[in-house]
Amino acid sequence: MAKRALITGVNGQDGAYLAKFLLDKGYLVTGAVRRTSTSDTHRLVEMGIANSVELRDLEILEFNNILRLVERSQPDEIYNLAAQSFVALSFEEPIYTGAVDALGVTRMLEAVRQTNAPIRFYQASTSEMFGKALELPQSETTPFHPRSPYAVAKLYAHWITVNYRESYGLFTASGILFNHESPLRGKEFVTRKVTLGLAKIKHGELDVLEIGNLDSKRDWGFAGDYVEGMWRMLQQDRADDYVLASGEMHSVRDFVVLAGQCLGMQIEWQGTGAAERGIERKSGRVIVRVNPEFYRPAEVDILCGNAAKAERELGWKRKVSFSDLVAMMAETDERRLREKKAIL
Ligand code: NDP
Ligand code: GDP
Question: Is the pTM of this model over 0.70?
Answer without folding.
Answer: yes
